[in-house]
Amino acid sequence: MILYIDPGTGSMLFTILIGVIGASIYSLRMLFIKLKFKLSGGKTETDNKKIPFAIFADDKRYWKIFEPICREMESRGKEIVYMTASEDDPALKESFQYVKTEFIGSGNKAFTRLNFLNANIMLSTTPGLDVYQWKRSKGVDCYIHIPHAASEIILYRMFGIDYYDSILLSGQYQAEDIKNLEKLRGLPEKELVKVGIPYMDEMAKRLKEEGEAPDHPRTVLLAPSWGESAIFSVYGGKILDVLLKTGYHIIVRPHPQSFTSEKELIEKLIKEYPESEQLEWNRDTDNFNVLRRSDILISDFSGVIFDFTLIYDKPVIYTDPKFDVSLYDAWWLDTPLWTTSALPRIGCQLTEDNMENLKEIIDTCIVDPKYADGRRMVKEETWEHPGEGAKRTADYLISKYEELTAKKEDK
Fold first, then answer.
1. Exposed e or buried b for every residue in 227-239, given b needs 16+ CB within 10 A?
2. Tens digit of each residue's pLDDT, the chain (411 residues)
3. 3-state SS, one letter per residue, for the chain
4. Strand partners, 144
5. Which backbone phi and psi does 157 adopt, to 5 degrees?
6. Cα torsion for 221, 225, 228, 231, to the nearest 10°?
7. Cα dist from 316 to 195, 269, 360, whole Å
8. Cα separation of 143 and 364, whole Å?
């Protein structure tokens, strides 16, 4: 008899096999490094004084996630070591009294440092702990994960958050998904704490301080993600042709990764559609102003959708949200993604069939009150405790630290 394995199961098994092989190879490499350190008389990180609070950012763009938390902890006089894998992380230019910022190298150099870390608490937005290069250090008492977007927690690659001890969340649906995964996989229950979204709080505060954008012609922001299912890969320059026909001002802001992974495609589009009074290409590091002066956003599965609609209270147009979940934690669950229920409430879907009517779709989305009501409902579901994210996060970190140190004293 020939055994049949369906594509989803086959993909999952292949992912697990690669994970096992990768973990084995890396374990041997880490053993070699540790022996080298010891034989050479060097000291590992676990030989040093224990750090109360550590933060790891694998990319400089995540400073926006951690900055409000660092500032809150700084105001409370709590010592933190912020470790970044980006040599040009803006955090390195900040001046703090209690927060120490440090570039720990990139790639395996960063993970080697983390794998020997000696800290009470490690906070990070990086998935994959104890799956590939980043291993749990025996010197770290508690690993805490914070998401970097107001959406699904199950759209990480498989096992992305399995080995964290605590997860900081912003919505009940996220907690339910994690609990269901734990039951299916027989995992220990993590501590799930709804703290809100600190970086969104800061953006909302900034918008309130600076106010709405000055009067301007109707402006459409096209902000695609990258990859085979992203807007430019699917539609190419056709979407730019249709947008230019609307007569509206068009801002194109590709995902930063596009300039690396899709360099040829982006350069081709920039050449074919050069900047003009009607069209501009935007690569600002800070997206605050470009979001503020746009009246509507067109995107695919980029996290900027929820930043735009929840903070700026404006509608979106989105492409087909369906994509292959076989490599993601979502594959394990038979419940629909929260995002697929949220998107129709905050805007219209763009398809090949209705693209020629894009101008009418834009106008409808901007004026139809049902989308304003939908944004309010979606915000309530995915952004609990608005304005309190950094405070609640700091409260939890400190209480967890006190709990851990009290247990050690009892022992």
1. bebbbbbebeeeb
2. 444 454 445 545 544 554 555 555 555 655 555 554 454 444 444 446 899 999 999 999 899 999 999 999 999 999 999 999 999 999 999 999 999 999 999 999 999 999 999 999 999 999 999 998 999 999 999 999 999 888 889 988 899 999 999 999 999 999 999 999 999 999 999 999 999 999 999 999 999 999 988 999 999 999 998 888 889 999 999 999 999 999 999 999 998 889 989 999 999 999 999 999 999 999 987 889 999 999 999 998 777 899 999 999 999 999 876 667 888 899 999 888 999 899 999 999 999 999 999 999 999 999 999 999 999 999 999 999 999 999 999 999 999 999 999 988 776
3. CCCCCCHHHHHHHHHHHHHHHHHHHHHHHHHHHHHHHHHCCCCCHHHCCCEEEEEEECCHHHHHHHHHHHHHHHHCCCCEEEEECCCCCHHHHCCCCCEEEEECCCCHHHHHHHHCCEEEEEEECCCCCCCCCCCCCCEEEEEEECCCCCCCCCCCECCCCCCCCEEEECCHHHHHHHHHHHHHHCCCCCEEEECCCHHHHHHHHHHHHHCCCCCCCCEEEECCCCCCCCHHHHHCCHHHHHHHHCCCEEEECCCCCHHHHCHHHHHHHHHHCCCCCCEEECCCCCCHHHHHCCCEEEECCCCHHHHHHHHCCCCEEECCCCCCCCCEHHHHCCCCCHHHHHHHHHEEECCCCCHHHHHHHHHHHHHCHHHHHHHHHHHHHHCCCCCCHHHHHHHHHHHHHHHHHHHHHHC
4. 123, 166
5. -55, 150
6. -10
7. 26, 23, 14
8. 46
Dihedral pair phi/psi, residue 316, rounded to 5°: -130, 160
Both tokens of residue 58? Answer: 């694998």
Token reading at 313? 């209270």
Q: How many residues does the chain have?
A: 411
pTM for this structure?
A: 0.82
Q: Cα–Cα distance between 247 and 276 in angstroms, integer?
A: 12
Sketch out the chain's domains with CATH numbers.
Answer: 19-197+387-410 (3.40.50.11720), 203-382 (3.40.50.2000)
Q: Name the residue type at position 345.
A: R
Q: Is-contact 148 303, C-beta < 8 A?
A: yes
Cα–Cα distance, 255 to 233 (Å, whole number): 13
